[in-house]
Specification:
Two copies of one chain form a homodimer.
Chain A (H helix, E strand, L loop, with lengths): L5 H4 L2 E5 H6 L2 H10 L7 E6 L6 E6 L2 E6 L2 E7 L7 H9 L1 E6 L5 H6 L8 H5 L3 E2 L8 E2 L4 E13 L4 E14 L11 H4 L2 E4 L3 E11 L10 E4 L4
Antiparallel strand pairs in A: 2-3, 2-6, 4-5, 5-10, 6-9, 7-8, 9-10, 11-12, 12-13
Chain lengths: 226, 226
Amino acid sequence: MRHDRRSYLNLMKHFSKKAILDADKNFRRDFVNCLSGYKSLNLIGTFNEETGETNLAPFSQVFHIGASPPLVGVLFRPPTGERHSLGNIVHNGDFTLNHVTESFYKEAHHCGARWPNSEFKATGLKEEYKDGFPAPYVAGSPLQVGCTMEEQVRLSVNNTVLIIANIEHVYVQENALGEDGFIDLQALGTVTVSGLDSYHLGQKLARLAYPKPDQPIRVISSDGDE
Amino acid sequence: MRHDRRSYLNLMKHFSKKAILDADKNFRRDFVNCLSGYKSLNLIGTFNEETGETNLAPFSQVFHIGASPPLVGVLFRPPTGERHSLGNIVHNGDFTLNHVTESFYKEAHHCGARWPNSEFKATGLKEEYKDGFPAPYVAGSPLQVGCTMEEQVRLSVNNTVLIIANIEHVYVQENALGEDGFIDLQALGTVTVSGLDSYHLGQKLARLAYPKPDQPIRVISSDGDE
């Protein structure tokens, strides 16, 4: 291990569980939201079957659940008050995931405000429909996924709701897709989020070959290769 | 919305669920693992209470579950064959999360190989113990979290296991912690992962103020500020 000079220059601050619980509510929310590290950022597109109104909301709690069959998970906060995205998904099952790029991350953030009507109309992001899928994609997003709900799991510990969904359609910019199935998120321009409100691009270190005990780690490709 | 020039120059490729299922197994695994976007990267430190042996494994499926009380979730693949980390956590409850930096991401990746003994010994990463917590932290990691299992949820859809854990201790480099609770992951040097094997640093775009319908999006701080 090569040591990072920073780790000697900077002291570590300790927070016990009690110190976190005793902290100001806003401090605690920001702090705990940062602990896991960088998070995925997706705009989730849904529609209300009764009113026909579309909905678009930024989510940082989308994660991989399985490849065979292709499944994705979305964790929703406890459904107190209005939760349009969750309500629409539970009601009619269909939703879209859309990667966010530098060119529209501010609009994506603005979708998190309490708009009375569709966030598409409010922010100027455009709806896109294709291959008969009923939920709206975000036009111009470089990676779009059409999903249908498979299962809803309520986590009794704090009433968050985990939606597990089948991946029905994927649209991805061809220039970012490798022959091995790898999708280059930097070629897509995908944005990542930390905490509640900090947005970042990725800066590649390297792709590393499958790790084996009897071999040193081998770099497949690094930043300089591209 | 300002349009990204890329989106006009590059065609979108469509994959139906059937096309994904019909693809080569390795292609499918890489492809589906990339769909959610950038993922958190943590080394999970555990120990076997019976043998005393420590274990260290890289995980990209760690996510925020709640702030009050502070809870974190870790999704484990179906427990077929040896799953040391999951077995240790379920058996004695304690584990650590450790952010990974550029200075040791290759060692972190190497922890994913099938080592006969402790990955600490194998890779040269150093164990650190403090405040009476029994599981090993990774010395030099700029953000370390001590956790105890609260609940184990088996997702029947594909037998993955969701571990929900209480956050008992947090150690964070002081220089990265803001007064508002925000932790600057770039100051920590935290690495993010995409797919199975691609490692990245974050490159800040901006922090954005809480979004409101009647106000344009306001930048709190951007890359140039720091």
